[in-house]
Amino acid sequence: MQYLIGNHSLMKRINRTRVMNLLRINGTLSRAEMTEATGLDSKSLTNITGELLSEGWLESCGLSNPAIGRPRQLLRIRSNSGSFIGVALSPGRVVAVRCGLDGAIQAESSQDISPDAGIESLMEAVFRLIDSLIGISGAARQIGFAAPGVIMPEGSGFLLSVNIPGFRDIPVGDMLAERYGIPVSIEDSSRSMAIAESWFGRARGVENFLLVDIDIGIGLGIYSEGRIYRGTSNSSGEMGHTVIKRDGPLCYCGNRGCLETLASGRALLEKISGIRQSGRYSSEDLNRLKEAAAVGDTEVVNLLKQAGEHIGMAVANAVNLFNPRMLIFAGPLAWEDSPLVESARRDLSVHTLSSSLRQLAVQVSSLHDGAALGAAALALREVYEVEGVLAI
Ligand SMILES: [Zn+2]
Fold this sequence. Notes:
CATH class of the largest domain: Alpha Beta
CATH architecture of the largest domain: 2-Layer Sandwich
Largest sheet: 5 strands, mixed
Radius of gyration: 22 Å
Mean pLDDT: 88
CATH topology of the largest domain: Nucleotidyltransferase, domain 5
Distance between the termini: 16 Å
Number of helices: 14
Shape: globular
Low-confidence stretches: 1-6
Strand content: 15-25%
Strand order of the largest sheet: 6-5-4-7-11
Bound molecules: zinc ion
Helix content: 40-55%
Number of domains: 3
């Protein structure tokens, strides 16, 4: 803290970021309200808002109408002062969203693409979607990109994405930065979905939470003390490869009995089709499972329940380890009354320590295309964070 006090420009950035975050969360505020919320003196606050107004980040939007006292000028974030694009790749689909600085979605676009299409076709689809969003309202400030996989240590691309064939050693970040000439952030899909929950969804204001992403594979987004936990080599959250059955089925990672071999979308589709294949399934195949469950297909419902039991047990272990405030089920197999979620909730409550369970809120994500939203938030964070921390 001594360092922060001594570093004037960093303190200024933090205070500017605090004002931007206050307005992002509250919509409109007067300077007096911001002075009270930040604890800054009114002269400093007026200087900061003056700067932000003259740089075009903020705009005034009328006067307050208080019961007592004089009306005060209200300020808000100028939505069209900057646009941020979030792109998410999932098995069989690319989604892109364009957000304003206030986080409101300005435009959205998506394209189905075969999981076998190959990396060139995938990247062409990514470029096409971004081009179309840029065509709608001009250049963007930043791009965020999310895909299921392990990120390169230097953060420019993906080392590996088992569920998207050919997506290996791909420097997506560099490719996008070169093409569009703007900064690019990349992130694993499960973490990106957790970021979306923190910015737009169930976990707003929640500092410690876990998000379980149940898709073709299974991932875990970990939020600890208000920030994503990535681990030493960027590979945290590989819950799909936690071993839950000794000498269980062989997993593509080389281990036996991983959660993914028993409860992932791929495992369910293999059980139903009787065909073992690596990475060829798409999220659309999972939608068909959802439709089958909705009309009461007994085989599918039972498979989803069994998968939920395994996931509930694995999640209970994670909750016992991290003691989060909230656990969010997300992904194509985690809708509100899914048999998978219902049995996972049951097993979770059986296997979690009561000290952790007591204050745990269990939720199902309400966000559509959370990974793309999270990728947009990843780009937005460049404006709202200082040194990787939200300054509020
Ligand atoms: Zn494994």
